[in-house]
Amino acid sequence: MKARIFEIKRFAVHDGDGIRTTVFFKGCPLKCVWCHNPEGIGAHPQLAYYDNKCIGCGECVRVCPTNAQNIANGVHFFDRTGCLACGKCTESCLGDALKLYGKEMTVAELLPLLLEDQDFYENSGGGVTLSGGECLMQADFCAELLKQLKEYGIHTAVDTCGFVTKEALDRVIPFTDIFLYDIKARDEDVHIKCTGQSNKRILENLRYLDALGKSIEIRIPYVPQWNDDQIEKIAHLLSDLKHITKIRVLSYHNYAGSKYASLDMENTLPSLLPSDEETEKARQILKDMTNFSVST
Amino acid sequence: MLLHFDSQKNSLDGQFEMPHWITDSGLSTDELESLVSELEQAYASKAIIKAKTLALLADKAQIAIDADDIFQDKLMGSGIMKSQRKRWENEAKERYLATETAEMRRAWKEFGAYKGEADYGHTSPNTRLLLSVGLTGLLERVEIASQKEGLSQKQKDFYESCRIVLNAVITVAGRLAEAIRPYNVENSKALLSIASGKPQNSYEAMQLLILYFFMHEYIGGTRVRTLGRLDVLLYPFYKNDTENGVYTKAEIKEMLKFFLYKFWVAKVPFDLPFCLGGIDADGNEVTNEISYLIVETYNELNIYSPKIHIRVSEKTPADFVKLVLSCIRGGNSSFVFVNDRIAIKSLMNVSIEERDARDYVPIGCYEPAVWGVEIGCTGNGGVNLPKAVELVFNNGRDLKSGALCGVETGKIDSFEAFVSAVKKQIAYMTRRAMDYVCKIERHYDEINPDPLLSCQYEHSVAQGVDVYEGGAKYNNSSLYFYSIASLTDAICAVKKLIFEQKRYTFDEFGDILRANWQGHERERAIALRLSEKYGNNNPTADAIAVEFSDFCAALINNKPNGRDGVFKAALFSVDHYLPISKRTMATPDGRLAGEPLSKNLCAVTAMDKHGVTALINSVTKMDHAKFPTGSVLDIVLHPSAVSGEDGLEAFYGILMTYMRKGGFAMHGNVFLAEDLKKAQAEPEKYQNLQVRVCGWNAYFVNLSKVEQDAFIRQAENSL
Fold first, then answer.
1. CB contact under 8 A, A10 and B614
2. Where do the domains of chain A lie?
3. Which of A37, A72, B272, B514 is found 20 to 30 A from A79 (Cα to Cα)?
4. What's the DSSP call for residue B639?
5. pLDDT by residue (tens digit) across B58-88?
């Protein structure tokens, strides 16, 4: 069994408690306009090309099996249509301008990498977080990985958008210490506008996890003009739940622009950024309307 | 009545720039100097001359009073004894070591290869004994020891010199007491009390520490490199004062402000350290109420000197460590953490008894030495490790001058031969530096007898032998090994490019390096991009770092020095790595000639591509207990990684993991590359931005451009 992984981030301190390693799985059922990991949306491997890093060395041309990489008069040209995303060029690129998002990995390959920082997890109350994309689109793999992590006594977190089947959740529930659960909107029409999908299943799954008594950390991206009118409604929704450990309001940023460009993807990032006062106000509302701890 | 710090603060600032000398209280410097030369003619024993010089200054030099301060310390004549020692050192070198000194100078100043030198400056005086028995108690001990039968003339001179210097300090205390009386009766009483007996309370204890420090360092001219374990020192006084209504906690805090601020305004070179926390000789944790009070007070003062060493054991309270981490996170980086477990083990590796080892105190930057029992002398020079690679490629010659600087290792045809040749060069450079240190140390009796230090060392007093002549229980010396990461990356590149991929022969690669990669930009990009680099938890690179760190440590640990002690190895680079970088040619890892080599235990800048956890995993594969003079990792963290309550836990997790995995010492800088760039562009707006340079701190805006750029590159790599 293999999964498609697009990144392994060490010393992750914003994906659950303590020092963690976060594994990013490729493929996501949603398409949020503000997505800051666009390389995680598509299920298939993708080659990214960062033209500002290209030094024109031509190493990629030498190794490319399909002539997708070309160089003429010292200027590099990448023909994405011919690219198989085999990743050979990324190994030889001297400027680190080419990067492959989506590497096939087995549990046996992944596990030793995640165990490298076990001492850090233990000394900080951290662990391993599975994220994405949407990791639960590869739920069988996740379940097997989480199970083996638990055998090493490692704290596990699953970061999910919730737009997954109940069966997928059931697969990982026994081996997951905490769910990091994204709530983007309460109103269905707003949710569809922001993500392309209904939130019905997401809310059902949230109640399901809560009813089972699983620990849940709620994460709300705050994006002006898109979901800023949803905060009170979300607060109302959450106030009925019993197993929320914390609510985080994540202030939207637009740093991901260069990633869209590197993948030739249409940049959908909203241009308006929230002010510190706005996000603080959103936190205050959540604090006032629920009994949960609210943080950045 | 004690004064209030906040209302006095501004008037304390200029006290060392413009002391209020009482002109009729003594002679001018010129007059003093001429009396000193008369003394030098009159006596044969250097110890007696030195003691009498101090006594002369104590009697006849002008004093100054700080009426706005609550502590007194000023005696004119600073520099006289330092230049006396410098003269004696030059005479000894001229007489016994002229050729060797010239060779050593060239090896360092021209080749940037290795350095051996005399060091009198890393001391850890027995301030605990000083405070528990007082000046008069020390004097009594000298008297008793000197009653022994059958003493040699040298021993008699030793005791006489101790007697003279202790009386000299008592004289100064009396003179200052007299002069301050019209302004501050309480201060005057405190000075009289320490002149006539042991200190009775927190105030007198602090006044005695200050007086002793300024007499020893500024007048005596020997650099005191730590006040000792300040929480251990002050706690008995603090406890007694607060329990018996002598002083309240608030009053003691006020005193601490004046106390700490004194060293700040004195601008002690490289900052004066003291130590808090850690276990005692019995294995019990010492952190107490005053440890917290000192850190809080220090942080409120918003100063970076004195600097603070935090000893961390498994028993050190987590909230104390977190208090310090929160200061660092808030921008005060003048703290170093030292790992008790490894430091103690390292000292035991050079035959220091366990109970002694547990009572170590970091001197200077991080180097552990037994408090008041060992004479550390940890600044005897060091060896530029990457220079060994240059020497191998050039058959033992310094590339720039063509002069022989190492050994002729000839043509290299295998990786094993290369490794062995690099080791030969390192061993040669180390041997040269050690030989020189041993030779000069044999003349310390003619250069730097130090009765003021010796009279605090029980072993020295018992034997009647000066601490600089082997009088202490442990009389050790040290050498540093510089830039282990640059060495590792260079060796990895040679292994891969020459012997595995066979891209070039040894001679061809040598030509590329001699050309400083010019015309070989593509080859350089390949070398820079190799994955076998130190600091990435890469097994190949880390194995080389382990092999060479073990090799270096074994070259010097437990080898005899020139003073009845042994050498202790260190694996850090102070700020020496910048000047030696300029004198080191291009290295196989892609570094250009003159570019900075790696600092301390850090990776080559921007080559640690897998973050701080991978860096720590790499660093802790080496056995740091083999470095009894220490090793240190500087970590640069992005503010967002350590913000909030979660961030503090993460910071604590990083530190404790480093310690538990066997790291020795760590200091942290928390800042954004962006802020450093702005500070470089508009220094006037960032006057307060401080950074940890090495064992000391500085304001970023006061660093050279090269140093600033090194910090910016490191910060850019922090996330």
1. yes
2. 2-44+102-295, 46-101
3. A37
4. G
5. 999 999 999 999 999 999 998 899 999 999 9
Q: Does A120 touch chain B (CB under 8 A)?
A: yes
Higher pLDDT, B525 or B223: B525
Amino acid at A229: D
pLDDT, position B464: 97
CA distances in angstroms from B686 to B71, B253, B307, B699, listed in the order given: 32, 29, 21, 9
Instruction: Reply yes or no on whether the pLDDT at B177 is more than 70.
Output: yes
Q: Which two tokens stand for residue A217?
A: 């950390």
In this structure, which amino acid lies at residue B44?
A: A
B 657-716: CB under 8 A from A:
657, 660-661
- What secondary structure does DSSP assign to B109-124, as a single string? IIT--EEE------B-
Report the gap between the CA of B212 and the closest CA in chain A (Å). Answer: 42
Q: Which residue has the higher pLDDT, B673 or A232?
A: A232
Considering only residues 620 to 659 of chain B, which have any Cβ-Cβ distance to chain A shorter than 8 Å?
640-644, 646-647, 649-650, 652-654, 656-657
- Residue range A2-44+102-295 forms a domain whose CATH class is alpha beta
Report the C-alpha gap between A82 and B296 in whole angstroms. 64
Q: What percent of chain B has pLDDT over 90?
A: 85
pLDDT the model gives residue B719: 52
Burial of A81 (0-12, 13-18, 19+ CB in 10 A): exposed
C-alpha of B306 from chain center: 12
Mutation site, B617, B657, B659, B719, interface A, largest A CB count within 10 A: B657
Query: Residues of B numbered 579-618 whose beta carbons fall under 8 angstroms of chain A's beta carbons: which are they?
Result: 610-614, 616-617
Predicted confidence (pLDDT) at residue B718 exceeds the cutoff of 80: no
d(CA B376, CA B362): 10
Could you tell me if A245 lies within 8 Å of chain B, comparing CB atoms?
no
- A19, A94, A96: residue with CB nearest B613: A19
CB-based contact (8 Å) between A251 and chain B?
no
Average pLDDT, chain B: 94
Interchain CB distance below 8 Å, A18 and B610: no
Does B226 contact A at CB distance below 8 Å? no
Residue A271 pLDDT: 92
Predicted pLDDT of residue B340: 98
Q: What is the mean pLDDT of residues B488-502?
A: 97
Cβ pair A116:B657 closer than 8 A = no
Residue B668 pLDDT exceeds 70: yes
Residues A125, B612: C-beta atoms closer than 8 Å: no
- Residue B1 — very low, low, confident or very high, per pLDDT cuts 50/70/90? low
Dist. CA B538–CA B526, nearest whole Å: 17
At A136, the pLDDT band (50, 70, 90 cuts) reads very high
pLDDT, residue A255, reads 82
- Residue positions counted in chain B: 719
* Closest chain A C-alpha to B617 CA, distance in angstroms: 8
- H helices, E strands: number in chain B: 29, 17
Interface check for A16 against chain B (CB to CB < 8 A): the answer is no
How does pLDDT run across A194-225, given as a tens digit for each residue? 999 999 999 999 999 999 999 999 999 999 99
Chain B positions touching A122 (Cβ under 8 A) are 657
Provide the sign of the torsion angle of the four alpha carbons B524, B525, B531, B536, taken in this order.
Answer: positive
Residues 6+ away with beta carbon under 8 Å from B423: B388, B548, B551
Cα dihedral B256, B262, B265, B266, rounded to 10, equals -150
Degrees to nearest 5, angle at CA B19 with B15 and B22: 140
What beta strand segments (E) does B364-430 contain? 367-370, 374-375, 381-384
For the question of whether the overall pTM of this predicted structure is more than 0.80, the answer is: yes
CB contacts < 8 Å between A and B, how many?
A: 71
